[in-house]
Amino acid sequence: MMHTTWFRLFLIVIVLVAGGLFLRSYNQIDKPVLVQTQGRTFEKACVIDIVQDNLQENGSRIGDQVVTLQMESGDHAGETVQANCPNGLLFGTVCQTGMQVIVISSTAGQLGIHTVYNIDRSWPIYAYIAAFLLLLSLIGGKKGVKSAVALVFTFICFVFLFFPMIMRGMAPVLASVITAAIVLAATMYLINGWTKKGRTAFLATLGGILIAALAAVIFSHMTKLTGYNVGNIESLIFVAQNTPIDVGQVLFAGILFASLGAIMDIAMDVTSACAEIEAHDPAISRKKLFKAGMNVGRDVMGTMATTLILAFFGGSLGTWVLDYAYDLPYLQLLSSNSIGIEIMKGFSASFGVILTVPMAAALSACRKMSTAEIQKKDTKL
Questions:
Q1: pTM assigned to the model
Q2: What's the rounded Cα separation, in Å, for the pair 166 and 173?
Q3: What domains sit in the chain, N to C, each tagged with a CATH number?
């Protein structure tokens, strides 16, 4: 047993090292310059004085603040510089003495120009993520730690595998399927080990996300909606003209990723329930086990599908508020690209959730040992 454990740890280390070396090599990509940033950097600084405020007598703010900053990074680290702070909702902030900010530091010849970009949110973001991972580990115990590792691994796969794949010209849908399969396999292995239950949940989840992608493609064909009907298409087309990325497929790749979590949850719920039932009653028939899995799945599927639709609804709430406030006609809403895409996102993912239930139940039933196999196993023991 001890030798087996050490051998397994050795294999895991080998796989991690090999994977890390592969990702390092795979990320060596010559990216085209889409925005000229020569001579411009983003640096950290601290506000040490408000030279000129933009606060008016009526309480409103008009124009820019002029502030003195202590630079904390970059070529001007340790120097005191003067900077403008714009008054905007998306760019700039209201500076106060002692505030940590991010500064756009631009150099044109011998002239240095500094502009406050925004508040420095680095530490609050790091602390927020750390608190989440800590709570997940403390409350979830050993499996919580494994879940945290799975989340970190998922992020690594998105940034260092999926993006390089599409930058190298691979179709985003295919790249998303490969990335999702790797993330799924790693998550299932970390949480359940490569057991029969884990393998069954893996196959059911993979089938579910493929169904979600297929449902989105069918809906797209029927409604003539494509990845070129999204709101930021002008920026995406500019990217497509300068890179190998097929931006028309990015929408469908996003639907696949968005549905992965919910489909994985329901697949795991059904297969775990079936595994538990089988453990307590090894002689249960495959038909009864399938029925039990379906009963569990029916209880979960409604709330899971609702969760998905609400998630997509919440993500596009600004669009819905604008449509409601302007009291747009029903036919205009129903035929608009934005509403159609949101419907496609929510319901395509829900198709995957719903059809994962019978797949997970059927796979659990099929992988169950028959009574004859159980008796044969008991005889050998």
A1: 0.82
A2: 9
A3: 40-120 (2.40.50), 143-369 (1.20.1640)
